[in-house]
Structures are given as C-alpha cells and as structure tokens.
Description:
The chain has 835 residues and is mostly beta strands.
Amino acid sequence: MRIIHKFFLVVIVLILSFSASLPTLAATISQGVYHQAVSTTTSGYPQKINTLSVNMNQPFTTIDVGTSNPLTTLRSVSSLSQLDTRAENHVVGAVNASFFDYDSRTPNYFLAEGDQILNLGRVSTNYNDFMYTPAAFGVTPDNKGKIAPYDLSLTIEHNGIVSDLTSYNRERNPDESILFTKSWSYSTTRTNATGLEVVVVTNGPVDSGRSLGQPVEGKVTSIRAYGDPNPATIPTYGYVISAVGKAEVDKIRDLKVNDAITLTMDVDAAWDNSKFMLASGPLLVQDGKVNISMDLRSPRATERTAHTAVATDATGSRVFFVTVDGRQSGYSQGMTLPEFANYLVSLGVVQAINLDGGGSTTMVTRKYGDVYPSLVNRPSDGRERSVSAILEAISTAPYGTPTHFNSEQTEAGILAVGATVGFRLNYVLDQYYNALPVDPAKLKLVSVSNGIAEIEGNVVRGVKAGTGTVQATYDGAPVSFPLTVTDQIDQLIASPTSIRTGTGETASVKVKGISKNQQVIFNPQAVNWTVSGGVGSLNGTTFTAGNVEGKGAIVGSFGTTKVSIPVTVSNQAVDVSSFESTTSLSTEAIRGTATLKQESTLQAQNGAKSVKLSYDFTGSDGTSAAYLKWNTPYLLEASPKKLGMWVYGDGSSRWLRGSLLDVNGKEIVIDFTDDEGLNWSGWKYVEAEIPTSAQAPLKVQRIYLAELASNQKTKGEVWFDGLQAIYSISTPQPDAFSADSAARFVAKDKEFTITFNQEMNTSFQTSKFVYVEDQKGNRQAVTVSKGTTSNKLVVKAPTGGYASGKNYRLVVTHLVKNNRGTRMVKDSITQFNVK
C-alpha cells in the first residue's frame, strides 16, 4: 500500500489592510475573457494587480497549457502565446505558470496533456517547500477549471509480483521506496548506505513521452547492495528504485541483473480524462478560505515579491489568472503569500494555487486590433523572463463579421470652413473581438448632419460652423465620426519657435491654427508670409538663409492673426558651458562611483578652468557609467545640428556619450565617440550629431562615460571644457591653441630631446602621452622613444617632416609618471613654428 503523508495545517487568520481598489483598466478581451488592472495598497505597500477572468461557460472559450517544442526551450510568455495562436485558436491572454529548473530548462513539477506525460518532475520533501502537498490546476473534460491535490501512483511488476512505490524524485525517508528519474535534481540518488537500490534501463525517457496507465518496460542493469556507500547513478533512459525498511525492500529484494520489470504511472481517478494537468504549489485558497499548504514561517511564504496564481469559483466555470508586480519601490512592492491569498479570497475565489513568481511573473493580453497578446504587467527584471510553461486563455471562435470599430479623422482637430479632412479605421473587430483586416476601400461616407460639411469622395469639406456627425458604412456595417467645423482661428502656432542656421542653409517652417483651445485643420497655403531683416527668403514652407549673417524674423498672418519666428543667420557656434563653475553640476554613477571637481591647475582650453570627472568602475559586472549632470537641464536655442566640446582623455578607451531631453521630455542619446573611442590622452575636440528627428526645444541633461566590458573595469579621470552648440555645417572647428608670436622657428625635420629632472617611467614615453599637434588639433605621426638616459625622451618628426609655415605645439601630458608613480602637475607645452 502506498504511504501518503498526513499532516496538520495551522491555519492562521490574518487581518490585512487593503485600500479601496481603483480599477485603472477594464476591458473585454474576447467573448468570455475579461481583463482588469487595479492599483491598491497592502499593509501600506503599493500594489499593481492584473486579473484575467475566464468564463468557461461562454461559447468558444477555454484554457490550455503552452510549452515549447522541445520542452527544454525557454521562451517568454509573449513568444509562447504567439506560437499557439492560429485560426480558431486565438490566445487572448496568458500568464507564466510552471516553476522551472535553470540547468535542465524543464518544469520542476508534473505536467501532462491528455494522457501524455510531458514532464514527470519532482515533489517536495519538506513542509517549507512549495510542493509538499502535490496539487495541480487543469481543465476537466466538460471544460471546467479544476484545482486540487493529486496522487500519482507508481506501480512496479516483476517476477509476478505487483507493488506500489511510496513516491518519486524526492529525498528518501525511513520505510519508503522512492523512484528516481532524470527529473531529480542530481545525477545520483544521494542516499546513504542503508537500503537497496535497483538501476533499471528503458528504451527511452521515463519522464516524458509516456502515457498515463501504460506500462513502461525495463531491464535491471545493476544493483547497489545494502552497505555500499556509493549511491546509484540515475541512467539517462531509465530509473532507480531506492528502498529502505524491510517491507519496502521486499518489493525489489528478488530482482537480479537482466530481470525484466515494468513501471506504470497514473493519476487518481478524479483527474481522469483531463485536458491537461499542471502541478504547482502551494495551494493558497481552499473552500473559499485562506489555507496555504506549506509552512507559513518559511522565507518563501514571508518574502514580499511578485506572484502569479490561478484560481476558480466553486464550480470551475470561472477561472482567474492573477498577477501582482513586486520588487519595484514606489510602484508595486509585491505581497507575501498570505497577503496574496487574502487578496484572492477578496475576489470571491474558492480554490487557488500558486504559480511561479518573482521575476517570472508575467501577464499578456490581446489588445484591440492586435492578433497576438502583449505585456500588460511590469516584470521586476524590467523585461519578460523566458519560462518553460504558461497558462493560456483561448478563444476558439471563427472569424466573424465587422462589429466593433476604432475610427478617427486622418488629421486631428476641428475643421475650418473651406478645408477638407478624411477618415480612417485603426482597427476592425468581429463579434468575437478577433481583429479583421482593414480595407480602406470598404469605408463609404454617406451623410453629414446639420449641414456643416459636404462629402467630396472620401473626404468632407467644411461648409459652416457647428457640430455634427459623419455617417458612414464599412462592409455594410454602420460607422460614425463626430465632426466640428469652425469659421475662425484665434491663434497661429509656428514650428520651430525660433530658427538659427548658417548662411545659405535651409529650414522647414510649419504652422497650425488654434480655435477655442483646439487645433484647427486649415490650408497652410492661406497664410501670408514675410521675411524681415534681409536674413533670407521663404518658398512655401522652406526658409533659405541669405549669404550674410544677421538677425530678422519670419512673420505669418491669417486675417488679423499673426505669428513671428525670430531668425538668426550665423556660422558661429553658441557657447553652452565653459565649465568655469560647478555650481549647476553634479554627478551620478551606475555600477561604480563618480566625483566632480573644478580644475584650475591643468591648462584649460576655454577660459581659466575646466571640470574633472573622476570615476571608479572596479569590481563591477555589467555596464558601468559615470555621469556629469546638469541639475537643471540646460535649454538650447532653436535646433542645433551638433554639440561639440574639448575632452582631456586618460587613454582608457571609454565610450563618451550625452543625453538630451526633447520638447516632450523624451531622452535622446548622442555619441561623442564610438564604444571604446575615448582612447586618447590630452585635450581633443569632439562632436556629437543630434538626430534631425529630435523635437525642439532641446535641453542638455548629461554627459557621461560608459564601459560595457567587465574586464575593462578600472578607474580614471577625464576633463571637459568649452561645450558648444553648432547650428551650421559651415561652423569651423575651434583651434587647439592660439599662435604665439614669440614661438621659435625650427627646421621641418626637427628632433626634440626632452629632459626631465628625475628618472621617468618609460611605459609613458609613447606618442599616446607625448604628442605634437597642429593648430587645428591634428596630431602628427611623430616617433617618441627613450633617450640616452631614463630622464630623457626623444621626439622625432614625422616622415617627410612638418609642414613649412605652420604652427605646432609639443605636449607632454601631465599623465606621464616618474619611476615612483607620481604624475606631473600639469602639461608641459612647447609651441614652435616651422621654417
């Protein structure tokens, strides 16, 4: 006789505080499937909860399990939902389900579809584990949800003897016989020397691909006798029977090597003919009350985290998928298992079982107009985690006739008299909420009420001020569009609000009208434009700057309403920051530290000072970043094409980037270098292009260093100076230095010998730390080598020599160190002219 664990559950009645729930989203997903998102608080913590309610009594509505093929392939809930979506099998919602093993990539617990075992899994040994009480969710033959404990019988037969084993894939206790398969977490049984173990090989996997109730034939290949300290190894195809205690050992005592044996696995009759069974745990709600089938003192029960559960009403006609997000301070902190169980009871459920949670907690639903479901909750990992099995709410309805429409004007706003506007359908749904293809040719305009507009083909033209409705049909079904017509414009709004550009360059001008705080659809060609100040000309909506720098304006008028756009024509850059102060600046860091300091010793490029950003990425994994941040983002004039600045590098090959905010607060990331591109030492001028799609006005938010490679995590420092905005393709690059009239003249093949007052570290005597550049900052291909002594180095001219008549400077960066590891205080700079 099989031994079944019996234990007493201590039911703790918890009084939990739930604030009034505030539905933030409620929608019919398909016939019989409904989604609701709720914001609430539990024990003072914010919670975001999503519930998918499935009415199994509705036609074309059911639930199924979704897995990959092979089962060892992990996929996101969204991906698995897409795989199972097809005609008359529309996955309209889903949640993550099975706990799974990261190493084997299979579900931890029992999973069956029909009478086929997809995964045997394992059960828990201890009362503080999820599966101490084997339980499952499934769908019965009459399409009802079922949550209940289950009993998996394991029967062996050999030499005419039929016996039942105690359990499977868990630790063996006294007086038990345990079946060990590859679903066990280890390669051996991990038992002690007591007892008897029989190794059986079969013609294929035991854990999957077998039918419930069908014997699995095998042959004994080895026996681990009593007293042998080495536990039996579990075969890839086969199993081990491990028994201890006379009654249990007697079940396998007579087996010998090469003996035939059969194993039959089956579930109790209550689960007969189930559509599927998915084991999980613990049970959370039983008979309408909180009744958790595990030790409530377990950290797994008390941890505040994200959770997923499936629940049913008393008849199984209603099934609920429920998720609560977690580990996101200020958004959703998550619940303990008792809190989650209490929330489920508040929904009126009668049975509920816990599913995989934490970073796996995911819910997807089908949005109107979409074919596939998409994410509706916020996973704590910041993205969907790949999982092994999901539960799917399915509509088996066929495609029907157009019934539900989402429609709008082709252009938002109210219509001006004399102007035209069309209409479109964003999506069309049938009576089962399936998305149908949208065919614009099937949309026919029929009439306009109140005489406010006339139909002209597929558009309407405003006739008189007022409100009304445009009646239309789509494939014979009625569709209507509200319409407002106006005969006045109160305000003109121009875009951009200001223009700054270079001589001979162009900029686009757009204008929209406002009436009673609403945008007006009107003909922009009716606006009369003039350009003042002689700064250029306007052809349609294109402004072309003149060939002379200056200031003026573009003025547009529509009746008595006017708008003015200030215009500056200049090829000069605009200073953003000379970094003479750090008052408005601060630092941030990710996976590292960052500090900011005003620099007045090292020679600046603009003015008297620069800023130094020190960073330390050591000891961190993943992408690290050190940010120079404007406490209040800096507002840029008009729409610059680029940002440029001087950067003093430390030679550490970082990624130099920046971030802007557009008019809508959206972050725009720009690149001053490629990844590992900040690879120089000393001052160098760099520029970052701003996407033409960036919507002005723009604000400078941050400049930062990033390091992606874990093996490149070191510390260092860089300096910034002379940040400027560039508006013209003709803006010249700033000079690296001003020519010194007192600089000496040298021959074009001049060889410099630099003498230090102490012995130097020769590893820094390279062209990376000692260089020659021209006035535009172009570094020359000089050769830097050690001199005759350790306190000297030699700088040889490039092949072919320096260019005659040009100014250069020789720079020994302050990064050069002596033999004691001490750096120079500042750069040593020598200007020279070439004869």
